[in-house]
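Page 37, top half.
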Amino acid sequence: MVLRRDPDDPRRGALGYWIGKLFQGQGIAREAAISLIQAGFARLDLDVIEAGAQIGNAASLAVMRACGMVEAGRRLVHASARDRDELCVFYELRRPGSSKSAT
């Protein structure tokens, strides 16, 4: 699991995760994502954190929703492991109490 600052907008962060098959379905991704999101707002002073997954990845989309993220759009992302562009849905969460736009 990783949280990195957007190089084009230092007030935005991107959350990424992958859980091995043996550990899927145990709530590990949700717990870790919630902790990283909290740290991103508190320690990195981010205003918005986003995450994305392929449209058919119901488990990852459920993790994003469980973290309080809301759908923010869809875009093509290059999947290097499959050497192709894939349509992904992105979710985002604004810093609690932030009145700034999350675009």
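Page 37, bottom half:
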Amino acid sequence: MKGVLWLASWYPNKTDHFTGDFIQRQARATARFVPLNLIFATKDLSPDQAEANNYWIPEATDSDIHEYIRYYPVSRSPFAFFFKLHSVWQYFKQHLIILKELEKKREMPDIVHVQVAMKAGLIALYLRKRYKIPFVITEHWWGYFDESTDALKNKGMVFRYLTKKIFQHASFFLPVTHNLGNRVNQTISRVPTMVIPNVVDTSKFNTTDCKDPERFRFIHVSSLLNLKNPEGIIRSFEKLIESGFDADLVIVGPAPAGLQQMIAKKSKLRDRLFFTGEVNYETVATQLKKASAFVLFSWIESLPCVILEALCCGLPVISSRAGGIAEAVGAENGILIDAGNEGQLLDAMKKIITGYSRYDKESISLQARQLYSYDTVGKQYVQVYQKVLNKESVSVQR
């Protein structure tokens, strides 16, 4: 195998340094085993768009990966049709520039890996038709589920048609959970499928230097958007304190004004609830290592990386049964509850505290690190590439 080209629909960039950072980690895991080029193109949202059409590399990598980040100017047309047409053309144009460069350098890939079907999958369709290069898809998006606020069913007819077309021509589908894989195969198109989970940098997320806090410490890490339901966590935690339990809650993420105002009114939590604000990847690991248990109370999810990271640090997890979380969290490493049920969350917090000794921190960490490490996930991707290129018989996972 000469090389692989990744086409990412989401990726860290100057507009948002965190979007798709899990895709970047998956790329780095794969690049340990095969040369990898990656292309990501997005609108330049800066006021003067002076850097449109320029490269931007998020950070230096120590693996065999070359990231091509391209920006294109936003259309000034007041008409929605022409605005979208301009955006699609510019998106293709930026990819074609890089593809010509790769062809000139004789670095055209043997196989393409699409990260999130729309809209990077459109470029994969072009490469399949123009150069006969097969492609596989990894999907993270929860929009395939009708309960999502950004559900596929609510998208336009063209979007839905192209999404189906992309899956129909894919050689392999690599969802991060069985839950997501089954949903796509049932509602979009049946594709040979293998579940490969999100990846964790286990050199950072592990039990090394873990410290037991003086008081039992819950931790929540997220974007703190409404779908993460941080308010529900805080209300349940407040009732925990009112019922006489001695614990802290650390919330990591960019707290919106409304959430901050809610906290300001919780005088009983003044010495029990702490916000860190938005932090980098390494600091997330540091915060997890100082906690006792992790809490997630989302309404909808796919497979949150932070749950896998918490498990790699040996933390038992309390989480709602959203998306494919039940595929990672069970009785041996946590407690699952119904989304939105604050009574169940309160009970789970109490059970974690009173039954904490039954959780084996080292065992939780070891099992998670074996499942989600760079080496494990990277090797799985390369095995799939080899199957596709060798045209081996594959079947849909159920």
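Margin note: The CA atoms of residues 232 and 301 lie 16 Å apart.
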